[in-house]
Amino acid sequence: xxxxxxxxxxxxxxxxxxxxxxxxxxxxxxxxxxxxxxxxxxxxxxxxxxxxxxxxxxxxxxxxxxxxxxxxxxxxxxxxxxxxxxxxxxxxxxxxxxxxxxxxxxxxxxxxxxxxxxxxxxxxxxxxxxxxxxxxxxxxxxxxxxxxxxxxxxxxxxxxxxxxxxxxxxxxxxxxxxxxxxxxxxxxx
Length: 189
Fold this sequence. Notes:
Elements: E1 2-3, E2 13-16, E3 29-36, E4 39-44, H1 54-60, E5 74-76, E6 80-89, E7 99-100, E8 106-108, H2 111-118, E9 126-135, H3 139-145, E10 149-152, H4 156-161, H5 164-174
Parallel strand pairs: 1-7, 5-9
Antiparallel strand pairs: 2-3, 2-10, 3-4, 4-9, 6-8, 6-9, 7-8
């Protein structure tokens, strides 16, 4: 088990501002699993993949299932390495490759966790993401200063039990922001 340092925005969520120009991230809620001076990495957690299923994923991996796999939603984790799978999950499931991000959220990327999920032995709460988002050093900080993102502290309810189409608004509500009162322009005082 690898424990991360609690620095920068690791373990927080980015909420795309309503004026987000990049269609890949418009309306997105992104969970940041790593943010250091070397850059940041995270996963979009509110956009489902419609054209590819968990059963399709299991069929591409060496997972031998006897009975059909229950439907499990896959998420568009981000625009990079869209064929690479990651599981954001509760900390009741921790293996050697698991990165524990906070007291209740971890990330794993081994085939073992996918197999365990397929057989109903995985973490109690999980979200499977294909691909990820990343930022170069200081890039995310600049984007926040330019009013591209708001920052919220996620909880397991938001991450795992809220409907995807409601996550963005619930995250906005959690920080008490009235979007009608926000300016899309940044400035200096």
